[in-house]
Design brief:
This protein is an alpha/beta fold. 46% of the residues lie in helices and 19% in strands. The protein has a seven-stranded mixed β-sheet, sandwiched between helices. Helix 4 links the parallel strand 2 and strand 3. The longest helix is centred in the first third of the chain and has 24 residues. It is globular. Bound molecules: S-adenosylmethionine. The site of S-adenosylmethionine (SAM) has 24 residues, from helix 1, helix 3 and strand 2.
Length: 288
């Protein structure tokens, strides 16, 4: 292992610990964001979603993922949270089995209770180095999860390893539109707040992702900028935060450290989301 690989490994290890802490303590708070425990932003589609009903947009994001990924065979959800996307797939498509991985004990335990009786299971594993054999899966997805590893090549390489030839990887996530060094003062302030709040190693530059995927061996790479589809659900953030805080005050419940971190992350996501020159939200589809 050379020095660069060692540094990356150390960074992943450090970040994995803070990510696990965040989700072990703050996952419960997401019930306020989504009754279906979708821990991601939504996809607004004028014909099928109501911009005032958040879960309709969050579940539409799930539908968009499966539409690109396919709905047959065994899939891997790399960074599955409480299994919100998994449950949507298992409920709506009969021919699916899904294995999800997360760093959080809480999510694995509670998420598996929510999947009881369905063809899905959540394992506590690191998506950078899973225990699955080569060419296990008919498809893999990563919804707002590879950002935790800074969109480094590692999780993409691991996805490539565990996918069968011809299988697809679908990623939905926020990316930078330029290098961090080129952000303006406001952009870099929001970026740092977002990364600190949500324990993100960094965000990748979308313009470099295609080359990285090609170098790993992926083909048919399609990168869709869906920032305007995602915007209506991002605008729900201040209302969700206010409601959450009011309930805490009403119930005289203290705010946990990780909940405060999570709230800061959410606020900076909103502030970043409006800077369309610096940040964008994308769905990336590619084939092994
Ligand atoms: C914002 S949540 C998204 C969860 C889910 N994809 C969803 O949309 O509901 C990020 C998830 O990524 C997982 N994650 C982050 N880094 C990970 C890693 N190195 N290995 C496995 N899971 C990871 C976290 O545990 C968490 O479940």
């Amino acid at each position: 292992m050379n020095m660069l690989q060692l540094n990356t490994e150390l960074l992943h290890a450090q970040n994995n610990r803070s990510t696990a802490d965040l989700y072990n303590e703050a996952t419960e708070d997401y019930e306020f964001w989504s009754r279906d425990f979708n821990m991601h932003f939504g996809y607004y589609s004028p014909l099928s979603t109501d911009p005032f009903r958040r879960d309709s947009m969050l579940n539409e994001m799930n539908r968009q993922i499966y539409q690109r990924l396919g709905t047959k065979g065994v899939l891997c959800d790399m960074g599955c949270g409480m299994g919100g996307t998994m449950k949507f797939g298992l409920k709506n498509y009969r021919d699916l089995k899904i294995i999800g991985v997360t760093l959080s004990d809480f999510q694995a335990e509670e998420g598996n209770k929510r999947l009881k009786g369905m063809d899905g299971i959540i394992l506590k594993e690191d998506y950078n180095h899973t225990s699955f054999a080569n060419e296990t899966f008919d498809g893999a997805m990563a919804v707002e999860s590879f950002c935790h590893s800074g969109h480094s090549a590692d999780p993409f390489k691991e996805a490539w390893r565990i996918l069968k030839p011809g299988a697809k990887l679908v990623i939905a996530d926020a990316f930078l539109k330029k290098d961090y060094e080129d952000l303006c003062i406001g952009g870099s302030y929001c970026y740092k707040g977002l990364c600190n709040g949500w324990s993100l190693e960094k965000l990748g530059n979308i313009h470099r992702i295609k080359t990285m995927l090609e170098e790993i061996g992926f083909r048919d790479i399609n990168i869709e900028d869906i920032s305007f589809r995602v915007a209506p659900s991002v605008l729900h953030v201040p209302f969700a935060i206010s409601g959450f805080l009011l309930r805490k005050i009403y119930n005289a419940e203290p705010l946990k450290t990780q909940s405060i971190k999570n709230l800061k992350g959410s606020l900076f996501a909103l502030l970043s989301g409006v800077q369309l020159n610096n940040f964008g939200y994308y769905i990336i589809t590619c084939t092994k």
